[in-house]
Fold this protein.
Amino acid sequence: MQDMNIQTVTLPIVTLEEDVLLPYATAERDTDDPKLQRAADEAYRIGGLVLVVPVPDSEDLKTSLTGCIGTVAEIVSIRRTENDTFRIKLEGFQRSEILDVMSGDRYDVATVALYPDPDRPAEGEEGFLREELLAPFMECANYAPKNKDAIIDRVKRTKSLGETVDVIAGLLMTRLRDKVDILEEIDIKRRAEMLIYKMMRDLKILKAEIGIHHKVKERMDDNQRQYYLREQMKVIQEELGEVDEGDEEILEYISKILKAKLPDNVTEKLMKEAHKLSKMPYASAESTVIRGYLDTVLELPWNGETTDTVAVNKARAVLDREHWGLQDVKERILEYLAVRKLTDNQKSQILCLVGAPGVGKTSIASSIARAMGRKFVRVALGGIRDESDIRGHRKTYIGSMPGRIMNAMIEAGVKNPVILLDEIDKLTRDTHGDPSSALLEVLDPDQNKAFRDHFVELPFDLSDCFFIATANTLDTVSRPLLDRMEVIELKTYTRSEKCEIAKNHLIPKVLEKNGLQKRYVRIREDAVYEIIDHYTREAGVRNLERELSSLCRKIAAKTVNEKEADPTAKAHIITVTAKDVVTWLGAPKMSDDPVLTEDEIGVVNGLAYTEVGGELLRVEAVSMEGTGKLELTGSLGEVMKESAKIAVSIARVRKDRYHLPADFHKTRDIHVHFPEGAVPKDGPSAGVTLVTALISLLSGIPVRHDVAMTGEVTLSGRVLAIGGLREKTMAAYKSGIRTVLIPADNVKDLMRLEDYIKNEITFIPCRTVDDVLTHALAQGEATEGYTVPPVSTVKRSHHESEYRADNT
């Protein structure tokens, strides 16, 4: 507060919505708020003075207003309007600082310090500032839509520099922030300089807007002129009986162009094409191309868009209702919507969902569109090998057409759809170009705001689109294209997840599809598990849906046959249990891996991650007299063959520790076999399994039949981390194995496992192959197992080579 003769006073508070009352200005406030009415009535009765402030952001008036600058105003009049509200007319006359605010039941009051006008600048300086104010003011007044003379006259009647500043600001300033700045500035000189700056800024903006308006109006006037002249010509020809079908078509095109409110460059281009069309014979080949061009460009959604549903909870409910699991994808979409709720300055989103067939990549994309309230369109990319399929053909060619991206926009009808780029990993290339290179511009947020299709020949904004690509593998996706996408991996479904999907989604769907009522057909949970285990083997649920459909068809056939045999018979409930499945679907198509009941030499339970999920991989090794050959069978890849060679070297280095024959690499041939030889196998995670099989074989020590293992090994015997731990442990659980040896570096992945897996299986982290052999060989030293602890309780012991939990 400045060092002046300050007077304090307590006044009722009157708030203005989206406005600021400056001294020397007037304002009207319509209200049906009883508190405001009582405040105005009381003030008007005792003298008419109130404190006027903008409506605060917070309901806590004391916190919001204390220390702020308001305007002391006089109530000129109060009257009741036709719609039964009160209209309060106010006239401001002095600035004041709010010292305290007291909220009451009848109305709110504030204690304020009244600011007298500060010392005026020197006479010469005041005159200079007044001239500097009036010059931009007169220019701004010329742009006033009405009451220009009244505005100028009011400013000329001001008696001081402070009054001049407040009157000009009250008449010309439209931004709430600008008025607040002028009100809060006490110093007259700084207030005048601030107003000059704000008027000069607004003048620049006004001139730029008017210049753009004139240019657009000139173009529109020229187009309208051509349109009206053609309309007049059409009327004259109709009067003369000389109606030309071509002229009628041109008029229709021009009318569509003008009504579409397209960007200026698009309007100009289409008008040129329409003018060119008017000079061509109706049946010429080129006129057909131009008609197709005009139709296509006019169908593109240049302006229309849908409003996003930014209610995150509502979007979550839609995603959870339509899909089980897939938490990574759901969380990413909800994060995007949360950011959209806070800001509109967000570039287009480009996700790539990677997973095995049938895990729900395409269906989750359509659910995302519904959750966001957007249109959904699918672009199939499988087998595309021509760049023109993406970017379109130039319209100089006969039969030319736009690319798939532009066709998708036409199909969507809005400029911000969710576009699914399905099977992006199936793109190929030939002599006609590389379609994946054409997609680089589409999927680059910095470039797709001006995407140019060869057929359209005009920049089209794709930055509002939400792109979702799907792929089964990333191996065939080009690196530059992959760099433009955010990759989210969709894991294979576990047995329990498949069962939940079947109960909540698939069974109701197939029952409705086959005309069956849910109350008469009950498929028990054990029957679903029976179908999952013995009639399907997949990462997703497509075959599970087929088997359930087959089951429902057979039930439908039986129901119809019974109804035809006895039309009077009442419908009865059909319950399907695990024992009934074989009756309905026939002999099982899959069989469980035989569970070993005894420890055997050279036979080890390995764990593998395949495209259909986790598998128990039982490795068998035998030796015979020979010359040291290593035979590997079971359709193995190069990486797995190299792991077998590493295993032999590790065995040779450790021959003394495990009492192996000193010359086994010279006198013994070793044959290692991976069953199911028709299935290709590769990867390094079978390293510990191969080492264990060889050491067991050569030492004669059996391997525990109730233990499974996974892990890559190095030549020095270290065990490295592997992928697919979740799926591998599910395979062990399904096979009845309750002890799994894993790399120590994979302990962090245990928190992602389901609770029932962590409760049933004991995990033993291993850092070296010696740790593995200690726990895997039947005659090894007995050691305590490792049980998965709660998250954040796993720690490294200073004295031991393995991880242990606080609760073991």
